[in-house]
């Protein structure tokens, strides 16, 4: 992490996540947005209907919380958003292709919910 970076640690959305590997760097699946979604804060990403998104982790739902996945948008037409990883509601996407099973349960950390 950049020692000069400033940001804020936001509330955790979950204490565990499912990933394809222990570091949650491998792509789990490719999904298509079925609806637009406007991010309520910096932990989330904006998505547009029809957009493709690479999924890297799936938060383990807790109590009354929503079911959120973490990913980044895909495609040249979204170049300004590519590489930005954030959360989005699972209910707004449909899986198009599964690359690997998300069978590793990994604890979330504060950095998973850090906003610059």
Automatic annotation (TrEMBL):
**GO BP annotation list:** cartilage condensation
Q: Which UniProt keywords apply?
A: SH3 domain
InterPro entries the UniProt entry points to: OTOR, Otoraplin_SH3, SH3-like_dom_sf, SH3_domain
The protein's name in its UniProt record: SH3 domain-containing protein
A Pfam family recorded for this sequence: SH3_2
Q: Does the keyword Lyase apply?
A: no
- SH3 domain spans which residues? 26-98
